[in-house]
Amino acid sequence: MIFFNYFFFYYYFFLQGLLSILRKLKSTPDQEVRILLLGLDNGGKTTLLKQLASEDISHITPTQGFNIKSVQSQGFKLNVWDIGGQRKIRPYWRNYFENTDVLIYVIDSADRKRFEETGQELAELLDEEKLSGVPVLIFANKQDLLTAAPASEIAEGLNLHTIRDRMWQIQSCSALTGEGIQEGMNWVCKSVNAKKK
Amino acid sequence: MKHFLRVVTQFFVFLYFKCLWRGLKFVVRKFTGRCELQRICYNNKHGARRTLKIESSLRYSKNELLQSALSVHPDKVEKTIDDIMALKHINPDTNPQLGISLQASLLQIVGYRQLVAEVEKLRREPYDCENAEHEQMLMKLWKELRPDTPLSSRISKQWCEIGFQGSDPKTDFRGMGLLGLHNLLYFAEHDKSTALQILHDSLQPKHNEANRPEWEQKNQDKAIGYSFAIVGINITDLAHSLLVSGALKTHLYNVAPEMPSLVYLQQTFCYLMQEFHQFWVEEDPSDIMEFNRVRSKFHRRILRQLKNPDATLCPHFSASDLHLVNL
Q1: Strands A31-39 and A66-73, how do they pair?
Q2: What span, in angstroms and rounded, lies between the C-alpha atoms of B310 and B312?
Q3: pLDDT in tens, chain A (197 residues)
Q4: N or C: which end of chain A has fewer CB within 10 A?
Q5: Which residues fall within 8 angstroms of residue B183, CB to CB, at 6 or more apart?
């Protein structure tokens, strides 16, 4: 028994050593991109974040504070910050503006009553000095619901066509089914590349 | 590569348990003349120590009867115990206590599984505005927490006062479904003074400087200010994950004399709310943005606590209330 235990220990440490060497041999680190995920409460930001990280989405609770996850995509390391959308938390959004590469704004396309509110918040964000020139992707989320407004209608309602000072894109998606998310993220990576040039 | 090495390690663990452990068991059995279940029951007092050992003994048993005992229906527990006694050639007349001990432990094990299923069912049931029962519970929650202020309408900004995010609480239950509502209501009904105290504290900033602009206030003001209901739903998630991961076994096997029912989980929820509140105050976070950091630290602390086989997570009112449940 004692012999077995010793054997175990040696074997274990041998593995640890081997793994650390392998880790060092790994290629150079990816370029880091800071992504800010904002929007009203119940828009689906956390679900989107978990979908991006391929995690289980059935246990989601309202976000107090923020969540952060790192995702590898197309040679980038995307650090995605998901900040709670509750009215009480919105004043804290500005603490996270600095060094943002891309802003993702999530809209609940089925919650027509709050289109005005969400439009106002977005307009305020676009006016922020620290976010000037930052590309913005708008996810028209919850397209799986029958009552969801199409992306074109939302774009019109929010007067997106008047945005001249930055790259922007609206993408319809469903964070629940994952539809449309990849297309949106492709645009994110493309716009980061374009900005670097 | 990493995966492969892990598989190899697992293989060695398997070998260890398969050969050495069984050999050891055989030798001890010959020496003492008692089987493993008997040894566990004689050497351990009632509670998690005994039940956890019995559970793992049954799980790793080669015998099909013993393995299936873990998933037997509660009504058939008695018969299963008789079968086990017969299988192990134990005379019930000379070992009267053994049957009772085994039965109590097995009921706890089977009951825990049932509780997990019951809780999962509640969690998966979304809040439904059309369902009168759901609406009634929600209204009751308001009345318990705000006895003096009537709600102006079903959809109202007033819900923010008890810590929901917006004017309709429906959307806040999300992944926790009805379980969140059940827990909050239980807390408000059965541990009312604590619930009201926490709600009161959650609304009070430490230094009340309401006149300052919001932006400036935030830096100075170390508000306790979290949202009561939302935190309740978050702590429901914590309690749920403790239950599903099996970490809560220690607590439930220690406090529930037989099958643990939903009430036990709800009482655990009350305890977690109290403890979390205290923990939050002790941690003294600068603002709500630190919530997830504090929450995961709290989670780790509870897990550490539950590693001790004598641990219980009992709120202060448990003694009297648990007694009522037992009757």
Answers
A1: unpaired
A2: 7
A3: 455 555 666 666 666 776 676 666 655 567 899 999 999 999 999 999 999 999 999 999 999 999 999 998 888 999 999 999 999 899 999 999 999 999 999 999 999 999 999 999 999 999 999 999 999 999 999 999 999 999 999 999 999 999 999 999 999 999 999 999 999 999 999 999 888 77
A4: C
A5: B232, B235, B236, B239, B266, B269
Domain extents in chain A: 30-196
Residues from chain A contacting residue B24 (CB–CB below 8 Å): 1
In contact, B37 and B57? CB cutoff 8 Å: yes
Contact across the interface for A64 and B172, Cβ inside 8 Å: no
Residue located via tokens 């590569």:
B1
The continuous run of DSSP H or E covering A72 comes out as: strand A66-73
Give catalytic status of residue A86 as yes or no: yes
Inspect the interface and report whether the beta carbons of B218 and A91 lie closer than 8 Å.
Answer: yes
Chain A neighbors of B20, CB-CB under 8 A: 1, 4
Q: Is A61 annotated as a binding residue?
A: no
* CATH number for the domain formed by residue range(s) A30-196: 3.40.50.300
Angstroms from A29 CA to nearest CA on chain B: 20
Determine the pLDDT at residue B212. 47
Among A192, A187, A182, which Cα is nearest to A170's? A187
pLDDT in tens, B24-79: 888 888 888 788 888 898 888 889 999 999 999 999 888 889 989 998 998 899 99
User: What one-character-per-residue DSSP string does B248-295 give?
Assistant: THHHHHHH-SSS--HHHHHHHHHHHHHHHHHHHHHH--SSGGGHHHHH
Q: What ipTM did this prediction achieve? A: 0.82
The CB-side HSE value for B142 (13 A sphere, CA atoms) comes to 21
Give the span between the Cα atoms of A176 and A186, in whole angstroms.
19
pTM for this model (two decimals): 0.85
HSE (CB half, 13 Å, CA atoms) of B20?
A: 11
Position B222 scores a pLDDT of 44
CB contacts of A11 in chain B (<8 Å) are 9, 12
Tally of residues, chain A: 197
Quote the crossing angle between the two packed helices B262-283 and B177-190, to the nearest 10°. Answer: 80
Contact A14/A173 with Cβ under 8 angstroms? no
Which of A96, A60, A59, A56 is closest to A80 using CA atoms? A96
Give the active site residue among A86, A169, A171, A182: A86
